[in-house]
Amino acid sequence: xxxxxxxxxxxxxxxxxxxxxxxxxxxxxxxxxxxxxxxxxxxxxxxxxxxxxxxxxxxxxxxxxxxxxxxxxxxxxxxxxxxxxxxxxxxxxxxxxxxxxxxxxxxxxxxxxxxxxxxxxxxxxxxxx
Length: 129
Hints:
By secondary structure, the chain is mostly helical. 49% of the residues lie in helices and 9% in strands. The chain contains two helices and two strands, in the order αββα. It has a two-stranded antiparallel sheet. Helix 1 (49-73) packs antiparallel against helix 2. The two termini are 62 Å apart.
């Protein structure tokens, strides 16, 4: 395939395709603004640790309030049987106990994983020294 005179060439990798030069003359480029303008955005600023702590605290408080409302609205008794033990507790409390139990299982798995990673790092450091 041969290209016709005046047709645009395929851009090389990393180069943007542009309009074909007219009559062999290059068109002048507009100077780019030096500072940040409407076309450019400044890099996002990171918040402070204190700000993140306050945000996490606020979210936690809101979630706890919603949890209290959930427990208060689900006070109907539920019959529970676990390993031969039987009893009746409010539905909200039963679900809260189940959620806390699940969180404990996840926390145990996370601690076990972190412990294994730290032991491996310590062994690697001793081998390098």
